[in-house]
Write a structure and sequence with these properties.
alpha+beta; two-stranded antiparallel sheet; 44% helix
């Protein structure tokens, strides 16, 4: 059975090799969340930085900090512990500078809309072809006065009588 050590701050069971790194930057350790908030919002504007900006800032901080200082947890650790970067910001009481994204449309709804659009276009195109296609029923007809008129016979609704092949 493997030996594990329990973190006194968060209660997580850790392998002996990862204890030192975890203990230095456990997000439940006193002072770590305050440090993260300070790194994310140094001017105290109420807005947090992006994941990429925090990654650069935290690496620079950890490289410059003394060995016994509280270390900044990685952005991956914060997002994993909180569930998402938005949840990290919420935990720290910060807002995001990024605009809220539009909700993604369901792929099935997009596909159904595309199918309906194509079906409508096909129906419209088919109707146009039926009107244009075919030969006139006769090449002459008699008008209302009984005169013979050259050309296809018009129907009462204005269309032209045609025979389909």
């Amino acid at each position: 059975m493997r030996e594990t050590i329990t973190c006194p701050h968060c209660g997580e069971s850790l392998q002996p090799l990862g204890v030192g790194m975890h203990m230095a930057s456990c997000i439940r350790k006193p002072g770590v969340l305050a440090l993260v908030r300070e790194l994310m919002d140094p001017d105290n504007t109420g807005y947090g930085c992006t994941v990429d900006a925090y990654r650069r800032i935290s690496v620079a901080y950890n490289d410059a900090a003394p060995a016994d200082a509280v270390r900044a947890p990685s952005s991956d650790t914060l997002a994993r512990k909180c569930g998402s970067w938005g949840a990290v910001l919420e935990l720290l009481g910060l807002k995001s500078r990024q605009r809220a994204r539009q909700p993604r449309r369901d792929a099935r709804a997009i596909e159904q809309a595309a199918i309906a659009e194509v079906a409508e276009a096909i129906t419209r195109q088919h109707a146009e072809r039926l009107i244009e296609r075919g030969l006139p029923v006769c090449d002459f007809h008699y008008d209302a006065t009984g005169q013979r008129v050259h050309g296809p016979r018009p129907l009462p609704d204005g269309r032209v009588a045609r025979i389909l092949r």
